[in-house]
Amino acid sequence: MRADAPRYLQRVRVVEVLVSFGLAVPAWFAFGPAPATIPALAVAAVAPALVRVDLAEHRLPNRLVVPAIAAGGAGLLLSWPVSGELPLVPLLAALIYGGVLFVLALFDGMGMGDVKLAAALGLASPTVMVALASPLIAFLLGGIAALSALIRRGRGRRIAFGPFLLVGYFGPLVLTAVVRPA
Questions:
Q1: In whole angstroms, what is the distance from residue 115 CA to residue 70 CA?
Q2: To the nearest whole number, what is the mean pLDDT of the chain?
Q3: pTM here?
Q4: Are the C-beta atoms of 66 and 40 separated by less than 8 Å?
Q5: Using CA atoms, how far apart are residues 53 and 146, in angstroms rounded to an integer?
Q6: CB-based contact 169:142 (threshold 8 Å)
Q7: How far from chain centre, in Å, is Cα 107?
Q8: Which of 9, 24, 34, 163 lies 20 to 30 angstroms, CA to CA, from 127?
Q9: From the centroid of its chain, how far is CA 33?
């Protein structure tokens, strides 16, 4: 970070690093030292910045989302030789989760950043529980927020959906880390 950056911005960056680390720890405990951990750690690294930008600007920058997708692809490619079989859960999760949001984006219900983030989260979901619970939680919480915005501000208002996608992902991930057998 530049030395002439405002102090509040320096504090924001420090908080983002601490939150990223706080999200990476349960990712490590959920999946352990395996290739499937790579995409989860990548998502943890960019999650705080994605939330900050989406809340402020209603967009999810490619410079943050695309590396998470690439890490998901790397996790898939590395998991395959380790396990001896194609990791279908993250592959299907990415295709279905991203596909559903893409259809919604066609009707102007989502942004393309949300579509790409959903694909990244699908690739970072090596277990069926995380893959299924992540979109369910995201749509439940996002739906409640959208209904609240509709009631308070009327039609035509948008909400930042990226934070809900990330909460939907990290909720089951933390649960997986807590209940994972030693």
A1: 15
A2: 91
A3: 0.90
A4: no
A5: 19
A6: no
A7: 22
A8: 163
A9: 20
Which tokens sit at 59? 């967009």
Phi, psi of 86 (to 5 degrees): -65, 130
Per-residue confidence (pLDDT) for residue 90, from 0 to 100:
96
In whole angstroms, give the CA distance from residue 99 to residue 144.
22
Write down the residue that tokens 């405990």 correspond to: 29
CA distance 130 to 25: 16
Tokens of 25: 């720890």
Which pLDDT tens digit goes with each residue over 123-166?
Answer: 999 999 999 999 999 999 999 999 998 888 877 778 999 999 99
pLDDT digits (tens, 9 = 90+) for 49-72: 999 999 999 999 999 999 999 999
Of 54, 22, 65, 39, the closest CA to residue 142 belongs to 54
Residues 6+ apart with CB under 8 A from 105: 111, 112, 114, 115
Confidence of residue 94 (pLDDT cuts 50, 70, 90): very high
- pLDDT (0 to 100) of residue 9: 66
Q: How far apart are CA 48 and CA 28, in angstroms?
A: 18
Tokens for 152, please give them: 């308070």
